[in-house]
Amino acid sequence: MLSKNTKSICFLLNCILVVSILTISCKSEQQTASTDPIISLNSTTDWGNLIGKKVSFTGEAADVKMGAIVTTDKYVLWLDDLERWPDGIYTKGKEVVSTQVFVTGILNERNDLPVAETSGNKITQGVSNSGENPGHRYVLTVYHWYEVK
Q: Residue 69, Cβ neighbours under 10 Å: how many?
């Protein structure tokens, strides 16, 4: 059985450990927060030069099989790990309402979209294999979004 003093010392050491862990995690969050200016994207911007940069973008919200996207006349921007927009943004019940949204986050790119293949008269499901980079997509990570009213 531990003495009262030993229990008090163990409790104190556990408290110090918890405070230390919380302090370290708060500092690492502050250090990773970007202080770079936010770059506003538009349909004439060359997005390929902005990979890894903090960007902002306004477009129309939509849901597709692989997740939530924001679209313009030229680009599609995927929101990482957002499977679908909350009710009222792209749909309201079963009705499509498609809303304008403003998003800010880190721009990344991936080449992970399934590409449709044609074999004889059979076509597999996926994106078109035409164009210079089939399967490519722009993805926004560490993002925030707001409905444009």
A: 23
Q: Are 101 and 147 in contact (CB under 8 A)?
A: yes
Cβ neighbours of residue 100 closer than 8 Å, sequence gap 6 or more: 58, 59, 60, 61, 147, 148
Q: What is the pLDDT of residues 71-121, one digit of tens each?
A: 887 788 889 999 999 988 888 878 888 789 999 999 998 877 666 666 666
**Residue 51 zone, left/alpha/beta (φ > 0; ψ -120 to 50; rest):** beta
Q: How far apart are CA 139 and CA 129, in angstroms?
A: 19
- Model confidence pTM above 0.85: no
